[in-house]
Specification:
Blueprint lengths: L1 E6 L4 H12 L3 E7 L7 E2 L2 E2 L5 H5 L4 E4 L3 H13 L3 E4 L6 H14 L2 E4 L5 H13 L5 E8 L9 H13 L19 E2 L5 E6 L5 E9 L2 E9 L6 H10 L5 E4 L2 H4 L2
Parallel strand pairs: 1-2, 1-5, 5-6, 6-7, 7-13, 8-10
Antiparallel strand pairs: 3-4, 8-11, 9-10, 11-12
């Protein structure tokens, strides 16, 4: 049985992780930490505001669903304490990832950073990567709830990077007169355009549109509820003890 602690346990995702871990017979929820709402009970564990509780509870794998600034402080500390990390927090820079790679390799522990734990999203990215060499134009649209503060989503960025790496034959953007500034979205890898929607009533949705002469292909993934992320989170937790260093993307532990 793997002892699991959760950082960001009082947030919506963190609370869902606590419940999912507690319901899995091969895992044990031993600590729940959050700087907000200490004293709240999640899956029969009282939330505390001191991350030292993870050490006291002999945590093996820490799940981090906080925010980028907090995670930048938490994750090196987690490695130094000899614990593995599974991270759903987004907003990391390339420099952040390089640093995490160094820290976790030195500690002999693993840090799994996944912008999206929905297996459907991982498959969407894989399908888009496979399709990319057969098309010469592509755009991506991501839709999220109105509480998401970073844009575009980590999933959208990673998906575009995978498509860009899979093919170098991308047609240039024909736009020469942008009537409304920014209307063509942001420029991702290989200048593939990325559009971000923030809207009430949504959770997480991603759509890749690829085009070639006379045809288009649309690949779409929808997460209607946060429970959709839990199979991926649990898979990453269970895989963590057999890895070390940095793994970016859930596909790294699913062997996709």
């Amino acid at each position: 049985m793997i002892a699991v602690g959760v950082l960001g346990a009082s947030g919506r995702m963190g609370a869902t992780v606590c419940e999912a871990v507690a319901a899995d017979s091969t895992l044990e929820l031993v600590a729940a930490v959050d700087t907000h709402n200490a004293g709240q009970v999640c899956a029969d564990i009282t939330v505390v505001d001191d991350r030292e509780a993870l050490v006291k509870a002999s945590t093996e794998v820490v799940v981090d669903f906080t925010v980028a600034n907090a995670a930048r402080e938490n994750l090196p500390w987690v490695a130094q304490q000899g614990m593995h990390a599974v991270v759903g927090t987004t907003g990391f820079s390339e420099a952040d990832l390089v640093y995490l790679q160094e820290v976790y390799e030195a500690a002999g522990r693993v840090c799994v950073v996944a912008p999206n734990f929905a297996i459907s999203a991982v498959l969407m990215m894989r399908f888009a990567e496979i399709a990319a060499p057969y098309f010469d134009t592509a755009e991506m649209v991501e839709f999220h709830h109105d509480a998401k503060i970073d844009a575009p989503s980590g999933t959208a960025r990673l998906c575009v990077e995978k498509m860009a790496a899979a093919s170098r034959q991308w047609a240039p953007d024909p736009t020469t007169n942008e009537i409304l500034p920014g209307v063509r979205g942001g420029s991702g890898a290989a200048d593939i355009r990325v559009h971000a929607v923030r809207m009430r009533g949504m959770v997480a949705h991603h759509e890749v549109i690829l085009g070639a002469e006379g045809q288009t292909l649309t690949i779409r993934q929808d997460s209607m509820d946060r429970s959709s992320f839990m199979p991926g989170v649990l898979a990453a937790i269970k895989a963590a003890p057999s890895h070390s260093g940095l793994i970016v993307g859930l596909e790294g532990v699913l062997n996709l």
